[in-house]
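Exercise 3.2. Students should predict the tertiary structure of the chain below and write it as structure tokens, then compare their answer with the key that follows.

Predict this chain's 3D structure.
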Amino acid sequence: MKRKWIFIGLCCLLILTAITEYGSAQSGNPVRELNELNIVMTTGIDYNPNTKKFTLTIQSLKPGRSKGTALSEDNIFVASMDGPTIMEAARTMRSKTSGKLIWYHSKSIVLGRRLIDSNKLKEVVDFFARNREIRYSSWVLIAQKDAKDILNAKPISEVTIGDEILGIINNQSEWSRTAVLTLREMINRFNDPTSAFITGRVVQTPTKDRKNKQIAIEGAVVIHNAKYAMDLTGNEVRTLRLINKITPQEPEVLYSIEEDTKADAPENNTAVQVKIRDRTENVTIKNNLPAIRLKVTIEGTIMETGTEKNLMSKQATDELKRKVSNKAQEEVLSLTKKSKEANVDIFAFGSLIHRKQKDYWNANKTQYGSIYPRMPVNVSFEWRVIRNGMINQLGAGEAR
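Answer key:
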């Protein structure tokens, strides 16, 4: 029995020695200390149609050499590299950094506008789908111009531009004027020929002193059949999110409604926050065309007002609900018209028809491109309640 334990102990010692030597210089596999890594936080990809080359840009962090070292600009590393393929650019990137590039923590991907316009999105999706280091939970954004400019921009409220992008994305449910998809969602929706998908558009805007530019995420870019289809403004994205549940969390949609528009009264706005509580979808076939009927159940909260009207009264709240519904209805009609003129199903009505009218879909799905612009769409809004907020409305000259 004693010999048996001696034998087991010797085996463990040999295994430990082998593991130690594998990560040593003698073994040809040098040890990588934490401060020898470059942790990629944000990735940007551009395409130049003249040179027919991709440009890969990364923003990475170099961990501090001592414990407890605060993150500073000295830890941030930004580099770009060109290549005929994204993979070759990524491999050649090693010539610019002594640290080992680690992509496991990359949280956002920015794609340049020329890449989208050049119909090179398929190569990008293929690269990320095959790469085991890339997180499928990474957010995907489209730059108004070049992704390289976004990654080289100076952050205003964070140390890195990656953290600034992530913070703005986390606010999308409170703002509703953008919708950013993850890499997983983009890969899943990429090959659907009947519907389009959208993701947020990141732009650069000048600061107040005009010495620097700050980033903002507003509106969205529509991709259809792996190609750029059109842009959506912030208000159009807000309208789309009323009709479609694009992200798991429903947004808080804010409307500013004009009040006191009579000639003898000043114009004042009332801010109403609207939340979606339910959607009822129905598809009927009329004259061999699908007819879409969608009822959106909403509730609202008055967040601010300058009107002298008594918004506690039923008459005033009914009028306010009517104005909000009319404004939303007008924007829905405008967006559906724009979508039909471009023949791009941004609402995923094709999937709805597939679910509700399978026989019709199976017989006509190849002609959906000619069906979509002609089919009628009706969207109505039903109110549950509209609340007055945390306090009662203040009367003239009254304070509480």
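Discussion points: DSSP finds 13 helices and 14 strands in the chain. The mean pLDDT is 83.
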